[in-house]
Amino acid sequence: MVPVTPPILPGSTVGVLGSGQLGRMFAIAARQMGYRVHTFSPDPDTPTGQVADAEVVAPYEDLDAVRAFAAGVSVVTFEFEIVPFATAEAAAERAPVRPGGAVLHTTQHRLREKTTLAAHGFPVTPFRAVRTADDLRAAARDLGLPAVLKTASFGYDGKGQVKLMTLADGEAAVAAAPGTEWIYEAFVAFEKEVSVVAARGADGSFAHWGVIENRHANHILDLSVSPGDVPPDVARRAVEIARGVLEQLGVVGVLCVEFFVAPGGSLMINELAPRPHNSGHLTIDASRTSQFEQQLRAVCGLPLGDTTMHAAAAMTNLLGDAWSAGEPNWAAACAIPGVKLHLYGKADPRPGRKMGHLTALAATPAEAAEKAVRARAALARRVR
Ligand code: AMP
Question: Residue 62 is part of a domain; what is its CATH number?
C-alpha cells in the first residue's frame, strides 16, 4: 500500500515524550535504522536519554519548552500515556504527534477508555462510574461483590486499585479520597490474561504478534509467553478485536489490548496501552520485527515490518528486588542457551522498580517459560 503522506526517512529526528525503558528500546531501534532521537522529560540521565542524541530536561507542563522540542524534530511520539494531554497538544502545534493526542486522551483515563470501547461495541469488564458513597452502593447493587475499585486517572501496574470484598472496603476508599473519580469493576474470575500487541500504519495497514499470555505478581507483569495457550478461535477473536480498536481509535503506531479470558473462552478488554507494551518485549528477540521497530515504522510512515515469530518465547521482568542480596549473577543467566538479557540503565534498584527483563527462546512456549523462570532464578546464585 502507498503511504498517505511522504515517509519520514532515516537521518530525520524523532522526538519521544517520556524517558523510561520503553523510550530506550524505541531509541535503540530508531538509531539502528539511522534516525536521530530526542527525548523530553523532567528527569536527567534517563533510560532513554542515555541512548538518545539529545535529552531535554523540563517539566511536561512547560509548554513553551515542549513546543521548542517539537520544532526540532520531524515527528513526536510518546513512550508512556502518563504524559499530559496538554503536552501532546502543544507538541502537535509544531510537529505531527503519533499516535494522535486523542488516543492519549482516551486511554489515560480508565472511565473514558471503557466508555468509548463499550459505546463502539467492544467487550469490556462490566463497570460503573463512582464519585460518591451513593454511586458506590448503586454499583455494588448492579455488579455485585467482590469488585475492583480503580482511580479513573493515572493508574498502571495496579497503582490506584483496591479490591473490594465488602461494601465497607469501598466506602473507606471513597471517604479517604473525596472528589476522586473512580471506576467500579466487577471482579472477573478469569481463566487467563492475554494481550495482543498490534500496530497500525499511517496507510491503515495492520500487523500483530498474535496472542501473548501474561501472568502478574503483585499487579505487575511477571511472565509473558508467546504464543499464548488459547484455542485458535479465541486467538482469532482477540486479534480481530484488537484490529477493530486500532481502527476505531485511528491509531498510528503500536497499541496493546489487554484481555481477560473468562471460562468458556469469552474475552473482555481490561485495558489499552497506546504504545509498545511490556508483554511485547519478547518481540525484540523472537520476531523479525520488534514492537519498537514497528512503532518507528508506523510513526515515520514506512511500511510495517514482517511480524513472523521465529521461535517460541518467554519474558520475565527483573524488578529491583533482584538486587536485594547484591549484584545479580548475570553470568549464570547468560550461560543458559537462548536467554537474552536486557537492562534499562537505571541506577537505583528499588523494590518493584522495573530494571530490565530476560527473554528466553525455545522450541515450545512451555520450554521457553521454564527457561525464562530458570534464568531469573539463576540470578540469585552466589557468584563464585
Ligand atoms: P490494571 O492496572 O487494570 O491492568 O490491573 C492490574 C491487574 O489487576 C490485572 O492485570 C489483573 O490481574 C488485576 N485486575 C484488574 N482488574 C480486575 C478485574 N476487574 N477483575 C479481576 N482482576 C482484575
Answer: 3.40.50.20
* Structure-block grid coordinates of residue 370: 521454564
Rounded to an integer, what distance in angstroms lies between the CA atom of residue 167 and that of residue 165?
A: 7
The pTM of the whole model exceeds 0.85: yes
Exposure class string for 119-136: b at 16+ Cβ within 10 A, else e: eeebebbbbbebeeeebb
Amino acid at 181: E
Supply the range of the domain harboring residue 164: 126-186
Considering the domain architecture, whether residues 206 and 270 belong to the same structural domain is answered as: yes
- Regarding whether 295 and 155 lie in a shared domain, the answer is no
If you measure from the C-alpha of residue 16 to the centroid of ligand 1, how many angstroms do you get, rounded to a whole number? 28
The protein residue with its alpha carbon nearest to ligand 1, atom 16, reads: 148
Same domain, yes or no: 328 and 257: yes
Q: The domain that contains 165 carries what CATH number?
A: 3.30.1490.20
For residues 187-205, give the mean pLDDT. Answer: 97
For residue 147, how many other CB atoms are within 10 A of its CB? Answer: 26
Asked if residue 264 is part of any domain, the answer here is: yes
Mutate to test the pocket of ligand 1, among 130, 148, 165 (most ligand atoms within 8 A of CB): 148
In tens, the pLDDT along 240-296 reads 999 999 999 999 999 999 999 999 999 999 999 999 999 999 999 999 999 999 999
CA–centroid distance, 125 to ligand 1, in Å, is 10
Per-residue pLDDT tens for 136-192? 999 999 999 999 999 998 765 666 889 999 999 999 999 988 889 999 999 999 999
What contacts 24, CB < 8 A, 6 or more positions away?
Answer: 46, 47, 48, 50, 51, 344, 345
My answer on whether 289 and 306 are in the same domain is yes
